[in-house]
């Protein structure tokens, strides 16, 4: 039983097509305004697209055209967990979670039993008698998760469920989700790469209403082909036109590197005019106060915009580029915001991907 979706919304410049397997968690990532939440709202039945269709196994969720069909949210077999728990303030935690089973026709005793089961699954059974106003943010989100699971949804939608949580609550909920999502079909919208790595089998990256990258989570982050995915992986990315084994960029000039397997016949010079990305890690960047001797192939004159601790090193940011250096090297160079320096990268450290 697979989710199959095609949908377009002209006003929001959305045009997507995707599938989710029966025991697969799909992470949806992308910059703000990419269309991630719009996608979730369409699947949940909260927003009608201009055109398209969606099926969940044998059930048609919606279709447009000559014989249009639109299943209301409660008939879709879909559970939704959003940033805001949206618990009923006048009901106890137990009654909040039992609401879904009751709505599906179960009796009070049976609904309460289901609610207690799921509250136990999310480690919140001791909260059963409380009202939502008596809960912390993390507790409320665990209760909301139990409520979403209590209807036994065929698909669970999670729209940035940890975005509003504090730094102490998020790791616990993340571990909890890893356990309850095992073997379950789910779509999770997130801005955090850790969520994708821990929770998702596969990732899609959206930008301006389109899916620009898709694949197994580890593979996408190891070999990103979009600027956003590369930024998630902590890479520097420069875009431009590929000629031979270099990328001609508008702001950094010619960037030499090595072609990846994304090109037909990797390692063979590409035809001029192919759009591509040059990606390299901050750890591969050396910082100099003057151009080094030997005419390195990649030497970028930049101005330092920010210095920040990053583990046991210092991340030197210069606009869109970043370099990682030791604290001792930073002291020797006397770096501060505004310093004019040169970022130097060996061509062997630069991977070139087709855009």
From TrEMBL:
It comes from the Bacteria. SMART domains: AAA (SM00382). Residues 3-233 form the ABC transporter domain. Pfam families: ABC_tran, TOBE. PROSITE patterns: ABC_TRANSPORTER_1 (PS00211), ABC_TRANSPORTER_2 (PS50893), MOP (PS51866). Keywords: ATP-binding, Molybdenum, Nucleotide-binding, Transport. One of its GO terms (molecular function) is ATP binding. The keyword ATP-binding applies. Transmembrane segments: none annotated. It comes from Arthrobacter silviterrae. Residues 293-354 form the Mop domain. This is ABC transporter ATP-binding protein. InterPro entries: AAA+_ATPase, ABC_SmlMolc_Importer, ABC_transporter-like_ATP-bd, ABC_transporter-like_CS, Mo/tungstate-bd_C_term_dom, Mop_domain, P-loop_NTPase, Transp-assoc_OB_typ1.
